Amino acid sequence: MKRLIYCGLFCLLQNLYAHPTGNMISVGEYALWSYIYPLDDPDHHACIMIWSQGNSPEIFIKSEHPASDYMLYNRGEDIYIIERRYLASSDKFEIRILKTRIGEQPVEIWSWFEDNWRIGEGGFVMPSDEQIIFTRFPNIYSLNKGAEPAIWFDFGFPLKRLRAVHNNNLLLIGENACRLIGMNGTIVREWNALVDENVKNAPLNINQIFDADYRDGELLLAYWGKRTFDIITVEGIRKIIQQCRDPETPHWVAYIKNGKLLFASKLLFGGQTPKPVLLLYRSQEEIRPIWGIPSVQIKP
Predict the structure, then answer these.
(1) In whole angstroms, what is the distance from residue 292 CA to residue 10 CA?
(2) How many CB atoms lie within 10 A of CB 112?
(3) How far apart are CA 156 and CA 172, in angstroms?
(4) How far apart are CA 167 and CA 26, in angstroms?
C-alpha cells in the first residue's frame, strides 16, 4: 500500500512540477534528449529526440509503453539507452538497456528486469556492456549484469546526478557542488558553494543546481534557483549566459560542437506537461531556438 501511494504521488508530482525524467547528451554533431511524444500525451509515452545543425528536431525512438521514460549515455559513438516502464497491474517499475549508434536500430543488451533503485534517473555510465554505474541520492553505485548494486565510491557529499565528460572523467553533481573525477575515483577538480543561499522566489522553493556539463576547464550549469544558465570559466569567473523568465526553469545542459545546448521547461500547473524550450548558445549575439518557443525574444 505504501508503495502504491508513493507511485501515485510520484506520477502526480511528475505531471505537475517536473519535466519528464531523462537527460540530454551530444554525440558528435548530434544532440539527443528524452521527453514524451506527443507533448500533451496523457499516457506519457517516452521518446528520444535528435537534432543536428541545419535540421529540425525529429523522433529518434519512441517507447511502446505508457508511463515510460528514457535515460541516455554515450561512450564515443555508442549510445546506451535505459528504457523504464511502470506496470500498474503489478505495481512495479522495470527497465531494460538498449545500445545503438546514430543511423542504426537499437539492440537490447539487458532484458527487462525489476528496478527498485530508479537506475539512470540521476545519470549513468557504462564502462562495459556488463556494468553500469549510476547515482541514487545520495550515493553512487555499481551494478554488474545479473547482480545487485553496491556502493562504488564514497565521495563524502550527497550526489544528485553524474555524467560522463571528456578524457574518461565523470562529473558528479550535487545540489550545491560539483566534482570532476577520474574513473579510479581520484578528484581532478571541484567547485563548491554554487548556489546563492539568499536567493528569493526560487521555483517551487527549490534552490539547487539541476544539471551541469564540463569541457576544457569550463563548467556549464543549469541553476534552477535563479532560473539561469551559467558558466564558470577556467579562471574561476562565473557568468550568467541566459536568464529564463517565469514560467521557464533551467533543466539540462550539454556542450556540442561550437556551442552550448540550454534546455528549459515551462512549468505549467493543472496537469499539463511542461513545455520544452531548447536553445543553441554560441555567444550573447548568437542564440538560436531549436525546439519550443522561448518566453524571451531571441535575436536571430
Answers:
(1) 26
(2) 14
(3) 12
(4) 15
For 230, the 3-state DSSP assignment is strand
Q: How far apart are CA 144 and CA 133, in angstroms?
A: 9
Work out the pLDDT band at 239, boundaries 50, 70, 90: very high
**Cβ atoms within 10 Å, residue 157:** 15
Task: Indicate yes or no: pTM above 0.85.
Answer: yes
Q: Is the peptide bond before 276 cis (omega within 30 degrees of 0)?
A: no
> Which of 220, 261, 6, 36 has the alpha carbon at shortest distance from 118?
6
Round to whole Å and give the CA distance between 135 and 116.
Answer: 13
**HSE of 30, CA atoms in CB hemisphere, 13 A:** 18
Q: Is the distance from CB of 135 to CB of 125 less than 8 angstroms?
A: no
3-state secondary structure of 203: helix
C-alpha distances (whole Å) from 153 to each of 142, 181, 212 are: 9, 11, 20
Given CA atoms 24, 25, 26, 32 in this order, what sign does their dihedral have? negative
Question: Could you tell me the residue ranges of all domains in the chain?
Answer: 1-116, 194-300
Q: Report residue 7's pLDDT band, with 50, 70 and 90 as the boundaries.
A: very low
Query: Can you give the pLDDT at residue 5?
Result: 37
Dmax of the chain from CA atoms?
54
SS3 of residue 7 by DSSP: helix
In 3D space, the residue among 126, 102, 123 whose CA is nearest the CA of residue 174 turns out to be: 123
DSSP 8-state symbol, 205? G
Q: How far is the CA of 152 from the CAs of 124, 142, 162, 198, 212, in angstroms? A: 12, 5, 13, 34, 21
**194-300: which CATH architecture?**
6 Propeller (2.120)
Closest CA to 178 of 165, 167, 80, 282: 165
Q: Quick one: which of 223, 300, 233, 226 has its CA closest to 262?
A: 223
